[in-house]
Structures are given as structure tokens and as C-alpha cells.
């Protein structure tokens, strides 16, 4: 209907504005070709198909070379290589259906390699969409997550503007693939489409006449205005982020301070428009030692004194400044673990997500610049030219060069050794390297053999090395080589294959022969997936699926018209001559494959599988910090990250933003500097009455919505929170002081409950029970309780709300929220997002108020019968009060109260991991969490060692500062009362015999406006001290020594609170015993961060009632109703 309407409202357009000539032989394929020609495209890679033939014929007429391959995936790989080497987006054109779907792996590879390509896919005619046409599928949907944009061209006149935009987008910002869908009816000439779709004879029936009339109008609208006037083919401007002058000045300051700087360059550094040659000049003039990766390999030529190739991990350990020029802290840099904690890091990347990848876990940029890496180095050098030239310490360069040469010598020694059979792969590669001239382009496609090649072979110059990139795709070889040879026809192109990867490319030797593309391929044939087998066999004791055969690949390519050479042990002394023979055949115009039978070497160089496996030794730490620190990969791309848009001063009641009835306001201060953030309306009892009435009224309709409707809104709220995550994180830090890294983590953590309960909403089910009577059916259902009053603390101003709110909304309850007086803005921001995504008025209500008015509102929420449930997080004392107050109306009270968590370290523990866990469990949020480790018990056998390790880590890792500084790990306490409590606990402990190891003082003790307290370590603590009896809620680690299990359990359980507990042990029998005997609601074993939306959160004893999160979370907000249906026929 929509398409019918859109077509017919355009009748005026094609009848009166833009006439259509039915005899015009021009077609849409020619328009596509015209745009390609104007953009400088010289090659199209394709596999033929009827849907796309007009594009190919149109391009051929304009002199664009058409290269048809044997598989669609090769078209994209070839386009990828073409884009990398030419600087012009690569073009792949494939037919509809399977033609398009066959490209997906290659498109994803191009996305991760940041290659600007345009994939054009044929498609069924627009009028036949969804009607069962041949190869008609929703193609664009398949590319939503792997391309920058998906265009579907619906009219011929839209071809040129959409194609121009596709070129612009592919090259702007972070380059990447763009998908353009070209339905068949916009590509062929008018008369051909008319014959296909419009009846050539008049119909006698009314219906037939209407159908013909409709089809004629549809067709005319397709072609109307396509060739009117002169076509505007001028390319659109490309938008590329560049470093600012401020960025450059800061970087220069860091460089001048550095004694041992190091540069790590990635593929992004050689992207246009700066160009690899200009980058090379800048890097050489700067003179800082470099490691080159990806497409930047070869940038500095074969023998540059500053190009280091070996011992990178050692160099990173010793460097005091590391510059990441387009390199990413992913698996290739061990997720950032390779960086020294003492190093300063300058990261430059066009892509914000890649810029901060894994930051906050193992590394942190001292200066993060979203901009073009090559431009950064050019600007740096220009700046130094205008001031004082930058000089690198020659001793530092010499040390790295000596290490490099030492490793190179060892590799050469290994190359001279013998293998179990066939040829030594390292000797093969070393000999091959000797045969390359200065214009050779190398293509890498494979695992173990190719990994060794990356260390042995030396690319001769800029843009002479092609590998798949971060995705690690096998099968790129032939496509990359074809694209490279077309871009560099006067260069030798050599592909290094593993025998596993070669299988994907064999058929393309036919393509090379047909298109006269003489390419040399060298395959390291060891009849095995060696890289996989090397890990699998020792770990799992089996080589299943790892073995191949020593295939005669040389015969296979000869069958396709190429030339084949086989090398085995018999040619050990003639390797150079045989490679030179292969070169001669290539230069004579024929593709050649050299099938080299190799044995196993002991050189384990580039092993992605191994690096991933080794990194899993820290996987528990990654899992622990997943919710709170692995935030950057999901950082918002919102251009305005200013939190100030969420400084809302009014209450949110019944869908309206309104001041309180009293008109009064209260002040909100930033605890980091005690400066006023703003004024917020001070709600009172009457405002609370209005909010409860609004929620009660909204409950009538909200409770009757479907679970699917509620789930969709929660999902939208989740997405909105993630889109605004940086603004919301800044808001948290400004309001309550926690480090921005933790605040970002809280936003992800808080959002996870919105997502989780969006899914749980559709699983709140009842059941049919087995009846003892034949004439009765027994069922039960779970129904929403009604209006929920939510009272939340300041320490997690977002997550403590979403954990309660999402569960209540999911089952159909409405809510009235009283946020903490210190942090009202985060609650109001959440309401703002909820309103914008479509939550109905009255479903969510926010009552900000001061500390003075809090009791009045809290009392009303407990007293009114219109509130069915109170969900509270806070102190045990307040929880007890609410429980008593709510008893008059028999109100359900859900409470998460104080913790006083024990943290036990047994003699069998891994001390380093226990310290890791304690740093998180104790000092996260400056110790201001309900699950914070308050009483730290360390067994006597490891006590001294543990204390020493902990003290060292605290000194090196805990950095006090304003939370908005990315380097900060310890923010302020919330207010002066918190400072006083921490001080009193420390004073009492010291007065009763505890020893102060470090810390123990307020920062700037004479400044009443300063709420920072030094991270403090106490030993010799005992049970008689206040710090062992009360939650400190501050950055104080109090160590109690113990002798045995019974003693520590008696001390740990000698407490009326039991929220969380932690212990570290490698004795599995002990783990089972302790986990059973600890009197807490949650236990972290060898783990210091245990909260996640999937698990039930709550305590025992006086730590609360009920559970939050997990599938138990909805139980607190539903009533179970039993229904007995009688009078049935037995």
C-alpha cells in the first residue's frame, strides 16, 4: 500500500514535471558507470549475473576495466586491496541473492581493516519485492552491522546522488565498506522493463485496466527525471578528523619529557589523504624507534635504522612513552597488557571506539586523540621544525637495535637447521626474501607459515605489504593479489599462502590467467593446520580436524592454465635458483605457484591462537571487570558529550516536568571540589501525593499492556542509555565523584538491567496445576502488585535505580522514585530518556528532595495504602525504620542494606590474584559500596607477603584526583560526614594497637571543602575495634591475621550483616566448605567483583529482604493469584 501510494502521488511529477521517453535506450547502469568514472575508478571486480549486467556494460564503454572472478568473495577482497593501494574506494559488483550473501565475510574483513569499498548488489525489481521473485531476500539487512550504510536505490534519478554519497561515506571518518542495492528495474532501459512488467495488449476487465495503469505509472516514475539537465558528477567532500593544535602541543610536551619513546604504527596510519610517502618522511625526521604492523609494514623500507622488528614486548616494557599511531590495544597488543604501568601513552585513531579499546583494564591513554595518525606525525614534525628539533637518545635506539639484531641472528641460526622432513620453512622464507626486488608487493594469507613470513620477509617500501588485518580472514590471497597487480602492474606481486588458506584461492588462478595477471604464489605445504595443532594437541590430546594431505597444488594450477613448481628436500641447495625461475616465468606473463613442501620448525612467532590463549590467564579479571570497566567498546558516538544537558532542576510527576508545590530548591555540590553544580526542586509530602496518584492512575493502563509492549520500551530505554553513556557517566562523576572510568562502567552495568528485564518481561508466566478434582481446573498467575516506591542511595545513582525500576516496569507496575539528595540529576536524566523513548505519563515519577525533606516523603510512601511495595537500598538502620513504618499497611518491603563484607585470604591462595581482587573489592568507588570488603582476614602463613604486595600495589595504582581525569582511580568521599566516619575508624584502630602501613590522612586536612582521603592500609586489626564492627565506607584496608578455618569463620560470621563475602583459595575441598559456611547472600570465590544482572543480588541477616537482578528480581513486584475454575465436565 505504501509503495502504491508513493508511486501514485508522483503521477504529477512524471506527467507534468518530468516527461519520460519510452524509446530512450539509456539505462541506469550507464549512470552508475558515470559516477565511477568521475570518482577515478579504474577497475570493477565482479562475478557475472543478469541483475547487474547493465553496470558492467556501462562501465566497459567508459574504459573501466571489468575483472570477473570465480567467486563473489574474491571480488570484495580484490576491491579491498585496490582501495588500500590506490586510495580510491574499491568497487565490487555482484548479482542478487547468493551473489550478495557470498561476500559477507570479505565485507566484514574490510570493515575491520578500515578499507573504503563499495559493494553494489543486484536485486529483484522493486515492484516484485516480497512477492517471491527469484533471489529476492532482504539483502540490505545482512549488512547493517558490517557496513557504514546501506543504500537501496528505488528510482533511476536517485542513482547519481546515492552513489556520490556512498563514495563520500566510504572515505569519511574511519573508512569502511558501504552497500548499494540496485534493483534490476532501475538498471535496464525503459523499453526492456516495460516489456517485462507492462502488458502489451489492452485488458477488457476493469481490474486488468487498473493493473496496467498502475504498472505504467510505476514504470514512468522509475525513469522520470533521470537524464534531465547536466549530470552533477562532482565528488562530494570527504570528512576526515584531524588532530587539533591543542592535541599537538600536549603531545610535544609529553615527547620532550620522554627519554625512551617508541612508536607503534598500524594500517590506519597509511590511509589517504596524507599518503604513505609523506608519513615516511615525517617518521624518519622524527627519528623515534618504530614497530610497524598491518599495512604500515615496509613504510620505512628494508633496512631503516629506526624500524624494529623483534622483541617488541621488551621494548614496550622499557619505553617511557608509547605512541600508538592507528594501532589498537586488542589481541595484537595483548589487550593493552604489554604496556608498562609507568609508561605514558599517546593514542591516535580516527575511530573513537578503537581509540579507547580495552582502556581502563590494562592500560590508559595519557593523551587520546581522535584524528588521522599520519596527519599527527606530519603536524608534530612541522611543529618541531618551527621550534627546536626533537632528538632521540641514541643509546635507547642502539639498545633496541642490538636486541633486534640478536633476535634476527637467532632466527637465521634456526633457518640453517634441519627439520623432521622436507624443507626448513625459515630457510625457504629467508631465501625467498633474497630474490625480491625493490618494487615487490607481498600478500599474506595463512597461519603458521605466513606468521613466520611476517618476521622473516622484509617489505621493500610503503604500501608493499597486504594482510587481512584484525579479522584474520583466510582466503584473501588471490583477491588481494589480483587487486594489487591491477594497481601495480609494473611490480612483482607475491602471495605467501599456508596450505590451508590456499584452498580458498585455487580457482582464482583461472582469473589470473584470463585477465593476464602474472602473480607469483608460494605455498608452505606442511599438510596441517599447524597453528591450531600446536595448541590443540598438548592441551586436548588430539589432532582431530588438524591434518591435511601433501597435495600437488602445482598440478592443480596447471590445469587452470598457470605454471606450477614443486620444491622438496631435493631442492634444498637450489632454492634461490628455483625462486628465480618462478620470477622469470611471472615476468614472461604467466601466473606461477611454487608448492614448497616444508617440515616443522621450532620458531613459534606469529601465533594469534596462542596470544588469545595466554591472555585467557587474565580472563577472570576481564570477566570481573566486564560490567564496571570494559566500557569503551560501547561508548556513545554522540557528538555532544556534555553532561550539562541533563542538569534538570524540576521533578517529573505524571509526565510533566514541574517545580515543587513549595517552590523551594536545594543545592547539589560536586564532592571533588565542593562547587555548586545546580539547584533542584525540593519536593514535599504534597508532591509525593501527586506522584503516587499519577502512578496509581497510570497503573490502570500500564498493567494491562502486553509483556511485549513493555519489553520493547525497556529495550528502547536500554539503547538510549547506551547512546548517551558518556554524558550520563560524566553526570555521575560530577554528582558523586567516582572516577569517570568507573562511572562509564556503572552506565553499562545499569543499562544491563534494562536489557535483562526487557527479556524477563516475556517470561513472567503462570501455570496450570494438577487438580485433585475432575470437574475443576486449578491455575495460578503472577500479576503486578501496583505502585512501587523506590528509594535509592547516592553511591550508584544510575544502577541502583535501573536494577529496581526495570524489574517493576517489566511486570506492569508503575513507580515513584525518591533518589538520594546528593545525586538527583542521574535519576532525572533517566526519566528524561524514558519520556523520550515513549513511556506513558505517570508510569515513572521522580521526587528529588533535600536531606531535610527526605523523612517526610519516606514516611508518606510507607504510610499510604496506595503504595504496594517499597524497594530500598541504604543503611540497615533506615531499612529497619521503613520495615516498621510500612507494617501498618502490611506493605511489602524489599531491602538491600549494609554489608560489612569479609574478605578472606587463605595460605593456599594465589597472592597476586588475591591482591587484584582486593584492589577492586576494597577501593572501587573509594570504598563506598555496599559489597565493599570491610574486614580483610589474611592467614598467618602468607600475611606478611600479602601485606607487602598490597602496599606496593596501592602505592603504584591508586591515584587520587578529580574523577573527570581519566588517570584517577580514587575519587572523593561523598561529604564531610563520610570523612569524619573514616577518620574515627582509623583513629580508634590506631588507639587500640593497629599499625599504620600507609595513608591514614585526609588530603589537605585544613581544607573543609576537600573530601579526599588517602588510601589507607592498617595491620594488627582485631575484632574489638570499631572498624571490625561497622562499615567504614571509605578507602581503608583493615587487615586481621588468622590461624585456621574455624577461627576465621567465627570472626567472619560474627556480624549481624551478611550481604557479600569473598575468599581466595586454591584448595577445592576448602572452597566447598567455606562457601557453605559463610553466612552471606553472595560469595565471590577467587573473584573481587561479583555483581551482574544475570545473578540474584541480596543478603541475609540484617542485610536485607528479597533479591534484585536475575529471574528472581521480578518476584518482588508480583502477586501470585490462585484461580479455581469449577463446573467442568469430567
Automatic annotation (TrEMBL):
Transmembrane segments: none annotated. Pathway: Amino-acid degradation; 4-aminobutanoate degradation. Keywords: Oxidoreductase, Thiamine pyrophosphate. Its EC number is 1.2.1.24. It catalyses: (2R)-hydroxyhexadecanoyl-CoA = pentadecanal + formyl-CoA; 2-hydroxyoctadecanoyl-CoA = heptadecanal + formyl-CoA. Residues 248-377 form the Thiamine pyrophosphate enzyme central domain. Residues 445-596 form the Thiamine pyrophosphate enzyme TPP-binding domain. It comes from the Eukaryota. GO terms for biological process: gamma-aminobutyric acid catabolic process. It is an enzyme of class 1 (oxidoreductase). This is 2-hydroxyacyl-CoA lyase 2. It comes from Blomia tropicalis (Mite). The lineage of its organism: Eukaryota, Metazoa, Ecdysozoa, Arthropoda, Chelicerata.
